[in-house]
Amino acid sequence: MGDMNSKVVLKAEGIVKVYPNGVVANKDVNLEIVAGEIHALIGENGAGKSTLMKILFGMEQPEKGKIYLNGQEVTLDSPKKAINLGIGMVHQHFMLVESLTIAENIVLGKEPKKNGFFLDRREMLKISSEVAEKYNFSINVEEKIENVSVGVKQETEILKALVRGAKILILDEPTAVLTPQETKNLFEELRNLKKQGHTIIFISHKLNEIMEICDRVTIMRHGVTVETKEVKDTSPAEISSKMVGRDVVLHIDKLPAKKGELCLEAKDLCYTNKLGKMMLDHVSFKLYAGEIVSVAGVEGNGQSELAEILSGMKEKNEGEILIENKRMQDYSPKAFREKGVVYIPEDRMSVGSAERMSIRDNIFACKVDQYLKKNVFLDESRMEKDAKKWIEDFQVLCFSSKQKVNMLSGGNIQKVVAARELTEDFKIIIAEQPTRGIDAGTSELIRRKLIEFRDAGAAVLLISADLNEVFELSDKCVVMWNGKINAYFEDTAELTEEELGYYMLGVKNQSKEEVEKIWR
Amino acid sequence: MKTLVKVIFTSSFFYSLIRVATPLVLASLGAVITSNAGITNIGIEGIMLISALAGVFASAFLGGPWVGLLVAILVGVICSLLIGYVSMSLKADSVLTCIAFNTMAVGGTVYFMYAVVKDKGTTLALDSGKLPSIPIPIIEEIPVLGKILSNHNILSYVSFFMVFVVYILLYKTPLGLRIRSAGKDPKALSSVGVSLLKTRYIALAISGVLGGIAGAFMSMGYVTWFSKNMTAGRGFIALAADAMGNSTPIGATMASLLFAVAEALSYGLQVTTFPPELVQMLPYMATIVGLILYSIKRNADKAK
Q1: ipTM attached to this prediction
Q2: pLDDT mean over B69-92
Q3: Which of A119, A123, A145 best tests the B interface by mutation, with the highest count of B CBs <10 A?
């Protein structure tokens, strides 16, 4: 690679993508893919990788920028067009019909016909088993999708793209759902595809995989492509520091923490997801009043599962939770709320708010019981008065409290969620990515509020992939990797972002004893 | 009990079983097609009713029962495409669309019937004719069996032939593959560049054909006239049969036959001393009981 013969097959130049809700997903993206390479695209969640891939597959249209295919400028305005031009994509969520067989899924949409009307079953089996054989996929194409493993489903998706003539394959975090053996198998197949002349774009945030299989790597951060490097000329440490580096250093003044009583204790929490993957592997920690503990980590290492378990949205498989030294009996959201746990969820649109209801209705969703007249009717005037006060307090930009939430920008929706949660009677705040994808002003407001409540004696668990936030807000910091807490830092002041990055990507791991200091 | 046995074990009971099963089988096949495509076509009741009247008119004024059948099918297709347009293209709530359509069908058919024949009850005044009954050679000669199987209306034979047609369509053709994908995982279908909307319109049109034939049978086979609300909930029973038959053509046909037994029984028992009000309830009771049993079984399977 890199010699005079290398031919650029796909090139993106100056791509800008702004979503209707104002989120700038791609600011200035430049990407060059060389024929026959496996090209990694690495970056944090929210760095803009998925948006870029959607643009290259015709699912989204950029506001600015050009795309060249084999030197020719192209407009990719639909996936159909991208497919016709030889670009195939394997989505993270499979697009397969569960009740059909592998072969039926492979030919769906371009079925071979017999007598102009009937499905030519023999031809269908021939097409699909031939393509499977050609690329060395050992699968039985007559099996139904609902009966096969995730790995085979993924292989079916790859074959689907290949049958449609894909020369360039985009794989969106293909190993996220695979077991180690399946990953190994996939890599074997990818190497084989490469040998047969296919070009592969491999999206991942697992460094070891990139080092193992990719030729070149492009690093993205905050909507910008930072750099493209030959994998053999770089190191995991270099990639991780470029990937998680901070670009603006903001500073929030805060007083030293006044550690109070033990608020919440988690003991050996385990959680296995629907696909059978262990997302939490014996996670234990303690949360004290007056402290902010942040959980850093790359998305998908168990942090969101942890937040969901601590708020009752998911139920743990093993372990226990004690709040103020009392063991929880009931793990429902209601039980957590009654014990003074409030939750700012990551997904503010579908979990955090009822988007088609008004700001006021959203704010009072969890406190209607306190706003009753004669125990039956809603006390609207009192609600309106408090709603106004809180809208002002949390600086929600709106015309009135009756405005629907889905008319607001992302930042303002988050303010509504915060206004609802932080006006409850609470002792513990679980904040999951509270400032992701929202403007700087709102982020600062929410961060200040978290510090304000910490000073007032609340215990805060902050789950964040934003290192600015981790450094500025937290008193203590833990890192999650692969479902475990793999590092614990008593004092974030001495910590560097490079150091944290190594733990986030599993390049370094603390010993068990070091991690167990959380128990002290 | 004795009367019951006497009613059931006669060749005329089994003959009437096939007769009453015909519209149920046809309509339930229509429901099978649409539910495979991911649509619950509650409008099948209204489609049958409107087709039944359209068939009678066309037969009386345009040229006999065969033209009537053709027009009934055509009207069935137009009606189901209309439902599709309102609920899929204009995105109105599909349940409400179908309820409105069914209500309109009941009122509208009476309106047109009165406008044409000046009668709000039936079209007896019209000479609309009947599709032929077919004696089957050889089988006709067999005692008992001949009496049961032979000499049915041609559409009864068509309805059982349709079970195979629908089976082949759903499981042996590319179209069937797409229709099933549209119901099971619309995103997967769209991701390979097949239009979901188009696939669903085609499914609706096919169910319109089947509903149209069912309607034609009601007014030009089962009886030889149209009467107010003559489908009497058969479309809904067909939807229940589709659900019980797990949306497979064979399963839905079996379920339809089960409901037909109840209906045939209700006619058979009307000549006895059973209270007629209770007897007339039978087919509907059977539907509810059938759905309850089906749901219990399904939940038990799921629990496993």
Answers
A1: 0.82
A2: 96
A3: A119
